[in-house]
Amino acid sequence: MNITVTHKLATRLLEAGTEPVSGQQLADEFGVSRTAIWKHMKELEEMGYEIESVRKKGYRIQKSPDSLEAFLVQADLKTKKIGKRIEYMEQCASTQIVAHQLAQEGAPDGTVVIAELQTEGRGRLMRKWDSAKGQGIWMSIILRPDVPPHKAPQFTLVAAVAIVRAIQSVTGLQASIKWPNDILFGTKKATGILTELQSDADGIQALIIGIGVNVNQEREDFDAGVQDIATSLRLESGELVNRRELVQEILHFLEIYTELYIEKGFAPLKILWEGHSATIGKAVRARMSRETLEGIAEGITEDGVLQLRTADGKLHGIYSADIEL
Ligand code: BTN
After folding, report:
1. Ligand 1 centre and the CA of 124: distance in Å?
2. Are residues 160 and 230 in the same domain?
3. Same domain, 207 and 147
């Protein structure tokens, strides 16, 4: 069985959505017999697809397997650039490591690296990031924006807005953003973002935006130590969430918002970010490497720097910290 034809057939049916496509039409389009089409359908069923055969009308996909393989994500993907190249792996140490390597080898702007399982998933400050098989979205996106290196942290905020919008579009859930990179439900974290930089004297060579979304975990799937501080979209919505759709929506909104940022600067993104913020107006503790400050988070600057007012009335610009609400 020619696996490429089977994949192309799946893409064709996924793009047709609820509209059935007749066996004859597929046979004509793919230049094979109707019997061959039927055999490919059986192959797809073995791969985990549920295919409905609608009398006199043809085939349509009722359910696709819960996999993030490139051809599945790329079928009906709405982007122009992000995700046109996807490196998919069943397993890797960290998609960040793979993306750094690909970026150095010249991978194009918008390349996406996705893994079903990471054995050494990492978060900010070199913390471990639990990345169990098939339960979340573990991906890194290579961007090559023409902006100075000091603007790189703003992309974390841009990505956060894109993810909140994507979660809302797929699940209807309203998440909030804790500065700079956590996406929360209440006080529990569902998503983390890790933005890393490759730069030289000429400026940014590549930004690697790592995104980890807890999608379908149950409480017991999290390590005991994080069960009270982590959550998943399934736990929040009470339903299994389609990871493929969520990846597609994240890439779609990331493209929209990075384009907006490049065209109009950070100002419109700042407004969107503030609209989803869990931090602004709250009493917070900011733990930094040298000191810890407590005060009211008043806002973020045009550069995405957190403004914290301490009890003595002083306003502090926080560039990097762990924030406790
Ligand atoms: C954080 O909250 O500290 C950031 C977590 C980022 C996790 C993602 S999962 C995909 C990518 N690969 C990694 O090893 N980390 C990021």
Report:
1. 7
2. yes
3. yes
- Per-residue confidence at 279, pLDDT binned at 50, 70, 90? very high
ipTM exceeding cut-off 0.95 for this assembly: yes
Q: Which of 159, 164, 135 is nearest to 145 (CA)?
A: 159
Confidence tier at 303 by pLDDT (50, 70, 90): confident
Give the Cα separation of 314 and 235 in Å (integer): 40
Distance 53 CA to ligand 1 centre (A): 41
**Structural domain of residue 185, as residue ranges?**
70-275
User: Based on the domain organization, do 124 and 151 belong to the same domain?
Assistant: yes
- 28, 151: one domain: no
**Ligand 1 surroundings by CB, under 6 angstroms:** 94-96, 118, 121-124, 127, 129, 131, 138-140, 181-182, 192-194, 210-212
Phi-psi label, residue 189: left if phi above 0, alpha if psi -120 to 50, beta otherwise: beta
**Cβ atoms 87, 141 nearer than 8 A:** no
